[in-house]
Design brief:
By secondary structure, this protein is mainly beta. It is 11% helix and 54% strand. It has one helix at 3-22, and strands spanning 27-32, 35-39, 47-60, 63-76, 80-81, 85-86, 94-99, 102-113, 118-128, 142-152, 160-170, 175-177, 185-189.
């Protein structure tokens, strides 16, 4: 059994064991979904990405804790990853699949005013390098995220804004770099 398969089995077992134990607490959910992407990502031919996350989420008081264990399948010339696009890495062409990088996070509801419908969340996440870098399913690096979100609840309409910072930590040099050398700051207003 490969290391990737062992990690996938361990993660699935942990989710199955943790789910019944956590169900007795405030609110725990297990969810899944699917994302399919296809594009050239600046390369000569198209890359197809199938991303299937399994997410265990637990809410207690002002805290929300999440762990996402994804399955990933990438078909194409190599060197393309979800959320990064073309990485410049030399990875095998063809179809590669297996466990993706596990993401763990915590969100703290820092402010909530029910009367005015105003909500502020602070979130921290870590992407653990569990995907097989040699198969082109991950970077082999640990990424850290920090973000703040502001929501204005107005009936069925909820506009929000998010400001976040994403850093890949290169442990050998303790250097912080953004995705593909770009600034790791991001903002979203919707």
């Amino acid at each position: 059994m490969t290391t990737s398969n062992r990690l996938l089995c361990a993660a699935a077992t942990a989710l199955m064991v943790a789910t019944p134990l956590a169900m007795s607490a405030d609110k725990t959910t297990l969810s899944t979904g699917m994302t399919y992407l296809k594009g050239d990502y600046g390369q000569a031919s198209d890359t197809e990405i199938l991303y299937v996350p399994f997410t265990l989420k637990h809410r207690t008081g002002p805290w929300t804790l999440k762990v996402t264990v994804p399955y990933l399948r990438i078909t194409g010339p190599g060197g393309v990853l979800p959320d990064l696009g073309a990485t410049g890495a030399t990875t095998p062409a063809g179809t590669n699949s297996g466990l993706g990088d596990i993401i763990a996070g915590a969100t703290y509801r820092a402010y909530y005013d029910a009367e005015r419908g105003l909500l502020v969340n602070l979130t921290g996440k870590v992407k653990l390098p569990t995907a097989d870098k040699n198969k082109g399913l991950g970077t082999g690096e640990t990424d850290w995220y920090a973000e703040s979100s502001v929501y204005k609840i107005s009936g069925a309409w909820t506009p929000f804004a998010t400001l976040g910072y994403k850093a890949r930590i290169q442990l050998q040099s303790a250097q912080v770099v953004g995705p593909r050398g770009r600034t790791p700051w991001a903002a979203l207003i919707s």
